[in-house]
Amino acid sequence: MSLPAKALVQAAANSGLRAVSVRHSSQAPKVALLGAAGGIGQPLGLLLKQDPLVAHLALYDVVNTPGVAADLSHIDSNAKVTAHTGPKELYAAVENADVIVIPAGVPRKPGMTRDDLFNTNAGIVRDLAAVIAKASPKALIAIITNPVNSTVPIASEVLKKAGVYDPKRVFGVTTLDVVRSQAFVAELKRLQSTVRIHTFLCFQGHDASKTVVPVVGGHAGITIIPLLSQVTPSTKFSEEEIAKLTPRIQDAGTEVVNAKAGAGSATLSMALAGARFANALVRGIKGQKNVQCAYVASDAVKGVEYFSTPVELGPNGVEKILGVGKVSAFEQKLIDASVPELNKNIAKGVAFVKGN
Fold first, then answer.
1. What is the pLDDT of residue 23?
2. In a domain? residue 356
3. Are residues 186 and 298 in the same domain?
4. 143 annotated as a binding-site residue
5. Which residues belong to the active site?
6. Domain C-terminal end among 133, 155, 173
7. Is 270 labelled as part of a ligand binding site?
């Protein structure tokens, strides 16, 4: 996937595929999964194959795609599965796609930050975006490839160069931060419940499936900002709990990387988060508006071009940016501190495209 963008586009052109389509269908949604044979891609493909809203699941990778597709095609759900391998088949994978999910790239290893992945993964996202711009410019693009704070601006700049950029259609998937926050909050409150009498409200707060935690900012380190003041159902935290829970959420990815001891990074939880966000995009396309946190082009916070907040999804992608809402003084400090770091990440992504 690291071939130059021009080579990928030329390969697509040489394959004799028909002219660019701008289909954006709510009747039979096509989801393209780029990086389908990887550590995230395989479990993500499994979850997408089981999504009853997906009519066509197109799998793309540089190797091993036919085996993954054959395996998934034996599952008794209605989504049609197609396999696409290598640059010559990328165009067909994304053509007519309504949603394109991109987990392609290399995983983190112990001692690495998301930023350490930049050079390899930046080139992958740039090259994929160049073909998407030609083959499916109206698709909703969900980027999982790290560092998300930089890869979203990279994809955006490529689409701008091609004259097809729509800020409402490009997303950085930060759902994993939300999923982790909800799991950790529920775990903490469940533990506390063993030493106190339950109330009905308290009991609800202990159920991970009913706990909602907005996470704003970005998708790396200090830019990950869980809004514990806005947890639903309403949940009280001591200052000590907030001081411990916040950095755990921010560093949760490293927790998994270290636990896997060189065998990879978060794959199963990321697959769940990616499938959940892809489902939300498809529901939006079908007119079922819903709210998710996502890293998008946004004016929600002054002084930074991209920021994750709750957004309302609909047929056109982002229908409304809902902003950060009322935050605590502690959270506001975190937001303020995240802006310079995000600007550095964004500038690095933009410079990568303009310099290549």
1. 52
2. no
3. yes
4. no
5. 219
6. 173
7. yes
